[in-house]
């Protein structure tokens, strides 16, 4: 073994290499650890920031939803209070789980509310706007709305407002029509195409009776013409809120002895406000009438949605009583499969239009619409198929189509409900006479007899009156709605004629928007020589008026209205109008929102429904 001498320099170099090499390896490890720690912190901070952002977003969404639910709660509270006649202030505040709802209610009139609900939660808020309506039982859109009997105008009186007539308009007087006049072809009911025997029921739309959901009745068209209206003897079996439609009346052709699966025409949808809950004849007018051919078979189809409670009853005979048709049922009218027979025939009446609509000799300040216009002065536009001897200041539209009829403002089912309302107040048997100078309040009441008002004392109506006989008002006392009605309107119904000849005024409660409706349901009263209940009445009309009046509406379902007085009426509706007096009919636009109430202290009938809904914020 050879021993080398100690070299201090070499020893120091080797020692330095060992020391610095160890430090380099330690530094690298430290740098690596620091790098990984930095990355971890970055990841954790990023995740924390994202989670924090998500939490803030969730909190914002949650607060916004709480605010929305609070606004919805405010709206629901208002609708509940309206539908149940609860107290309702113009400003309502509700607290709900830390959120608040501030609701502002604006009363437009007795049947119209505008609701703004603002829900607030922490820093968030949502706002909902609603337009809420209570559908009026009457829809008086015209100064005069007259049926197939037409208008005969010979006096100096003026009708201010639009006029709709389903029969001829003839004018020889000095008065004018200050508004639009629209005339459709005459639509007399055809007595050979109807079935009115009622001694059995069929239910449409009851899911428990499936497959008997849709019902149908066939008939033979008596003449060629437009199928403008069908009347069904029916009722609604439940009351439900909302405007959702769950039944539609349709007309189809015949396909192998059953209804075809496509409709020629459809009526308006029927909802929880359509028809009464007691049997009555209900009119369904087709907006776009189908043209039927004489001698051909057609079907009236009751297309109902299947539901456990929201269903309808259609009256029928228990035996085959209509020679020209039959009744059937099916689960769905528009799908394949066979129909099943029903014993008997459903109750129905068919109305077809035939002939031409005419305007003769009238002075009209607005637009005139008729198939034929003769010797008339039209200051506005004119829509016609033929014209002669007439002056048109506006634009002429020759070759215009025949206008379609529109429904009368009050359905027979509504009238039936009003009669029921009156009877709930009690029954007076015998003739009721008021001949003193003292005022009297009366109603709601059904009178099995006549009503005679000949005294100078006022007769205040405190509830709906239904008189099975006639009504005569010949005294100097007022015939009026009780002041407690406020802006609501009162109803007086007679099954026979109504005669007005006194000096006493006829009017509503005295508050703007209040009217008195005098309604006659008698039939075949068309002037001198009329048979039946009008024989011996003044002019033998359904309604005759020769006195004065204010805020009064006359309505005759199937008879003639004769106006020979000097009073001012607000609207006229009936089968025929004879207008020979100097009085005037001045339409009040508030009639569109007329609220007919069963008593002076109750709210108008109908269900509050949402007309429009929108979220503003």
Keywords for this entry:
single chain, 617 residues, mainly beta, Jelly Rolls, 3 domains, 22-stranded parallel beta sheet, 2 helices, 14% helix, elongated
Question: What does this entry look like structurally?
Answer:
The chain has 3 domains: 22-134, no CATH class; 189-353, Jelly Rolls (Sandwich); 411-593. Helix content is 14%, strand content 40%. It is built from 2 helices and 51 strands. The protein has a 22-stranded parallel sheet that branches. Strands 13, 15, 16, 17, 19, 21 and 22 form a 7-stranded antiparallel sheet that branches. A hairpin with a 2-residue loop joins β2 and β3 (112-121). The longest helix is centred in the first third of the chain and has 76 residues, at 8-83. It is elongated and about 155 Å long.
Lay out the secondary structure.
Layout: H1 8-83, E1 91-96, E2 99-109, E3 112-121, E4 124-133, E5 144-153, E6 159-160, E7 163-165, E8 169-171, E9 177-178, E10 181-183, E11 189-195, E12 200-204, E13 214-220, E14 225-236, E15 247-255, E16 258-259, E17 265-266, E18 280-292, E19 297-304, E20 312-316, E21 327-330, E22 340-342, E23 348-353, E24 358-360, E25 363-364, E26 368-369, E27 372-374, E28 377-378, E29 382-384, E30 386-388, E31 391-392, E32 396-398, H2 412-423, E33 427-429, E34 432-434, E35 440-442, E36 445-448, E37 451-453, E38 459-461, E39 465-467, E40 471-473, E41 479-481, E42 490-494, E43 498-500, E44 506-507, E45 516-523, E46 543-545, E47 552-563, E48 568-569, E49 571-579, E50 584-586, E51 609-615
Parallel strand pairs: 5-7, 5-8, 5-49, 6-9, 6-50, 7-10, 8-24, 10-26, 24-27, 25-28, 26-29, 27-30, 28-31, 29-32, 33-36, 34-37, 35-38, 36-39, 37-40, 38-41, 39-42, 40-43, 41-44, 42-45, 43-46, 45-47, 46-47, 47-49, 48-50
Antiparallel strand pairs: 1-2, 2-3, 3-4, 4-51, 11-23, 12-20, 13-19, 13-21, 14-18, 14-20, 14-23, 15-16, 15-17, 15-19, 21-22
